[in-house]
Write a structure and sequence with these properties.
Elements (H helix, E strand, L loop, with lengths): L5 H5 L2 H16 L14 H14 L5 H6 L1 H9 L6 H17 L6 H22 L25
Helix pairs in contact: 2-3, 2-6, 6-7
């Protein structure tokens, strides 16, 4: 029997919506990241980001099908000039949000989850710098278990 996707293991679409809501609830109260969203994080933004995370973690390709895929995500981050401090705060709040949302706490899932957060936030910082030489076209990443698949007795 094949390993479940990270999306399935986490609990499906609803689990990722809980994650993104928990994350942006924290962001709205954060002194470093909150100013990136004056007036708060809109429902539209939360929905689009949830759709991205669902696709990345092995769910339906909704971000590609409905929102333009990688190129659209890249466009949202261009010229923001994100800092290393903002990247670290994003990663920290996302990890806390995973707890808030009740995502699986097993080390295999969390290693894959944090691996994506670290990879994605470092790319976002690089791609957000004014004049950055970016990869213009790519598929939405499809994240997997990596070296530690889920433990299933």
């Amino acid at each position: 029997m094949p390993d479940p996707t990270l999306h399935e293991w986490a609990g499906g679409d609803r689990a990722f919506r809980r994650l993104i809501d928990a994350f942006y609830d924290r962001v709205e109260q954060d002194d470093l990241l909150g100013p990136l969203f004056p007036g708060g994080v809109s429902e539209k933004h939360r929905d689009h980001v949830t759709t991205w995370w669902i696709e990345v973690f092995g769910g339906a390709p909704g971000y590609t099908d409905r929102h333009g895929g990688y190129e659209t995500m890249l466009a949202h981050h261009r010229d923001l000039g994100l800092t290393g401090e903002q990247r670290f705060r994003f990663a920290s709040l996302m990890s806390l949000a995973a707890d808030d949302a009740g995502l699986p706490a097993d080390p295999e899932f969390r290693a894959a989850f944090v691996g994506y957060v670290e990879w994605g936030t470092r790319l976002a910082v690089a791609n957000s710098q004014p004049g950055a030489d970016v990869v213009e076209q790519a598929p939405v990443p499809r994240w997997g278990w990596g070296v530690a698949p889920p433990y299933q007795p």
